[in-house]
Task: inverse folding
């Protein structure tokens, strides 16, 4: 593909991006109010930069049982929505890590994948003209896509040194290769850097927030490290035009500018790198390539206390362990909610009585309409626990393993709270035993677990 074709492709991608953002904003506006709720009035425009107007202090929102990221925003009177991660997300995360780690060798193949999806034609790459590392990585990445059935055609003529392939016209793959991979890469690398931290760490990608007076918008990646936020916006191309917008939003959300980062894969020219050095002096937030961002993650992780050794779980005080188990369940979207779980399960049963089959999202919204306002955020983690415990059945009567809120649920596995609650308990126990085996092997695990979830293991 020659330079003219690439330039034309970039222009078309820019147009598509603009149309996509417009459509997403329209969808967000239409869905901002849930079933049975009145649509919120259109918020007033944000104050002009350097203006004197300031928004009224937000009311404190209840965060009972919410995801840690959702809870952090809720404490500041800001509504946030975080989608539960799926098995498909984990597959794309692995692809993103490989692409990001070797992007210098893979940028040409990434461009070819974009082109084949948009043009719905195959493309040819003369791999014999590539450097040894470019050739190796390109063939490996294409083989990964082929193994995942994300290519419609694939042929490598080793003798001629030519690769020909056509990517599937899959919206997920298009979003991924058109820039989403960078968000995933930042999330994966951050999680690995903070893996050994002893402070609580939570993270999320693609967070939709509603914050007056700016209305509803999307955030790419956020980490909470010891309760302190790090916000990363990812830009696969030009980043300078959005700096002012991100600085204003960080101040609106209460995120320190020195913990707000615009991430790019790499600086394409010296001018961009010089601008990145000057932007913090003018706007407070920083711009970093992925290597610099990973270094920053490691610096933040190194500033935290060192992770405990292998015997820490055996020596840990039961009260401290209970707090850690509770925090881990919350981070896994499985808030145990011992004091309100029965009430929420009763709401789920009542929601099912309103009509089945229904999607998981519909059940959640019905639950929220039934319970009192302080418990509305807790509907999601209870529904997740019921699903993971095998309590949501598909049309064949089997436990549903789908994690999407659009998944259709035909029936519940039990018709009373006494039947549903053990399914939640088994979900809590399963995740602890799989992810924290040393803790689960302690002699007092049953007692500590019972304290955390309100029932025995």
Result:
């Amino acid at each position: 593909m020659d330079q003219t074709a690439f330039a034309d492709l970039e222009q078309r991608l820019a147009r598509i991006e603009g149309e996509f953002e417009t459509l997403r904003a329209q969808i967000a506006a239409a869905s901002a109010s849930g079933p049975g709720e009145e649509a919120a009035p259109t918020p007033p425009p944000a104050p002009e930069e350097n203006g004197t107007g300031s928004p009224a202090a937000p009311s404190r929102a209840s965060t009972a049982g919410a995801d840690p990221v959702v809870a952090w925003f809720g404490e500041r009177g800001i509504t946030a929505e975080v989608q539960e991660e799926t098995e498909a997300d984990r597959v794309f995360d692995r692809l993103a890590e490989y692409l990001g780690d070797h992007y210098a060798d893979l940028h040409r193949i990434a461009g070819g994948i974009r082109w084949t999806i948009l043009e719905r034609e195959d493309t040819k790459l003369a791999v014999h003209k590539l450097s040894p590392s470019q050739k190796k990585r390109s063939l490996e990445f294409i083989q990964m896509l082929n193994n995942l059935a994300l290519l419609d055609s694939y042929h490598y003529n080793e003798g001629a040194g030519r690769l020909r392939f056509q990517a599937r016209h899959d919206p997920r793959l298009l979003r991924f290769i058109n820039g989403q991979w960078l968000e995933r890469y930042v999330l994966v690398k951050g999680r690995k850097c903070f893996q050994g931290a002893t402070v609580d760490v939570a993270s999320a990608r693609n967070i939709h927030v509603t914050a007056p007076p700016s209305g509803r918008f999307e955030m790419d990646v956020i980490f909470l490290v010891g309760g302190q936020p790090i916000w990363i916006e990812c830009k696969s191309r030009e980043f300078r035009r959005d700096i002012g917008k991100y600085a204003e939003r960080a101040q609106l959300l209460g995120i320190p500018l020195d913990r707000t980062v615009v991430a790019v894969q790499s600086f394409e020219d010296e001018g961009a790198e010089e601008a990145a050095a000057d932007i913090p002096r003018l706007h407070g937030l920083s711009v970093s390539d992925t290597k610099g961002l990973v270094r920053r993650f490691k610096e933040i992780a190194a500033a935290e206390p060192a992770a405990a050794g292998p015997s820490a779980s055996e020596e840990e005080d039961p009260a401290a362990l209970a707090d850690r188990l509770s925090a881990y369940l919350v981070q896994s979207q499985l808030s145990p909610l011992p004091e309100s779980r029965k009430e929420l399960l009763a709401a789920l049963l009542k929601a099912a009585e309103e009509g089945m089959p229904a999607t998981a999202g519909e059940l959640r919204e019905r639950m929220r309409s039934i319970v009192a306002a302080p418990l509305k955020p807790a509907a999601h983690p209870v529904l997740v626990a019921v699903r993971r415990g095998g309590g949501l059945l598909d049309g064949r009567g089997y436990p549903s393993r789908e994690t999407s809120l659009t998944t259709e649920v035909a029936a519940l596995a039990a018709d009373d709270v006494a039947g549903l609650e053990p399914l939640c308990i088994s979900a809590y126990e399963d995740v602890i035993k799989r992810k924290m085996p040393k803790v689960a092997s302690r002699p007092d695990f049953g007692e500590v677990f019972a304290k955390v979830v309100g029932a025995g293991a």
Q: What stands out?
A: The CA atoms of residues 329 and 382 lie 11 Å apart. Confidence is low (pLDDT under 50) at residues 25-65, 305-312. The radius of gyration is 24 Å.
